[in-house]
Amino acid sequence: MRGGDDRTGELFSYVDLEARVRRNHPLRAIRTIVNEALSALEREFAALYLPIGRPSIPPEKLLRAMLLQAFYSIRSERLLMERLEYDLLFRWFVGIGIDDAAWDHSVFSKNRDRLLEGNIAAKFLSAVLAQPKVKKLLSTDHFSVDGTLIAAWASMKSLKPKDGSGEEPGNDSGEPPAQGGGRNTEADFHGQKRSNETHASTTDPDARLYRKGRGKEAKLCFMGHGWRTAMACWSMPA
After folding, report:
1. Measured between alpha carbons, how far is 161 from 139 in angstroms, rounded to an integer?
2. Is the model more confident about 191 or about 29?
3. What residue ranges do the domains of the chain occupy?
4. CA–CA distance, 194 with 196 (Å, rounded to integer)
5. What is the pLDDT of residues 134-155, one digit of tens each?
6. How many whole angstroms separate alpha carbon 21 and alpha carbon 99?
7. Contacts of 196 (CB under 8 A, 6+ apart)
8. How far apart, in whole angstroms, are the C-alpha atoms of residue 157 and residue 171?
9. Cβ atoms within 10 Å, residue 114
10. CA–CA separation, 193 vs 181, rounded Å?
């Protein structure tokens, strides 16, 4: 029998968030470890906040939310608060009820900065890493670096000595080419020694001479770097 595409509008819900998360979910083991680390920081939390005034975001919930932001690569606090509005898994991990409203992103950022300035976040991470159970959840790799060369939009003929010697008439000096129908004069660089210390491009001074390996030709390029960090990285199996 086909079910109807109707929205159920029950007034009350009797299913607890704890029952919404499956028993073998990897966040369950992580949350247990995190709660033990947070309990060890009770004195640091008490010293950071005044005993009077309007209650702020609990530091325990804020740190759990920051972990989720790192785990799921959420690029801003605004998107993190939006995710907390509808994601029951996030609400369960952070520790807010199903009917509680998520915080304003600006308030969250302000309270986060307070923890960072008080070195609470660093102490929290140290407390987590100090637990023996964490070793099985960490990667042994630290980081790797990948480099690439981005070709510059500049001709090799624009590479001239920085001291002005060897200047030839052409487009770079404002004079017409001496021969041929192209933009620049014909040039033979064979036997000439050129480097970034002695030469620079007249059309793109920021470009540099690079080559990918021994025996390869040098070209005017820009160096691009890609960092891939995996230090103290949680292992979360599907």
Report:
1. 49
2. 29
3. 17-137, 138-166+194-238
4. 7
5. 776 666 665 666 667 888 888 8
6. 17
7. 208, 209
8. 10
9. 15
10. 28
